[in-house]
Specification:
cytoplasm; Obscurin/Obscurin-like_Reg; Ig-like_dom_sf; phosphoprotein; Ig-like_fold; mainly beta; Immunoglobulin-like; single chain
């Protein structure tokens, strides 16, 4: 706001948050049945609210079988005690960007 006493004008500032990009993608994991499989991905910035993990086409959430963690720009997925049914594509998506292993 600019106020001269007799006159006043006001303007607003609007910011759009830059989209996060994947700067370090997923890598393939080979492990034994019954062990954990850990996948990691690093983003260009910390706040990425639309990040999502998938096993095949199924979106994953943290539960007793999957641990999803975020530490700064690093996102990780731990598939606990994997079985042969867990074999396949794991992907991570944020905005329009994705990585798969």
């Amino acid at each position: 706001t600019c106020d001269t006493g007799d006159q006043q004008t006001t303007a607003a500032v609007q910011l759009k948050e830059a989209a996060a990009t994947i700067v370090e993608g997923l890598r393939d994991v080979a492990t034994y049945e019954g062990e954990d499989a850990v996948f990691e991905c690093r983003l260009s910035r910390e706040t990425a609210q639309d990040a999502q993990w998938f096993l095949g086409d199924v979106p994953l959430q943290s539960n007793e079988m999957n641990e999803i963690r975020v530490q700064g720009t690093r996102h990780s997925l731990t598939l606990r005690k994997v079985t042969l049914e867990d074999c396949g594509s794991v992907s991570f998506k944020v905005g329009q960007h994705s990585s798969a292993a």
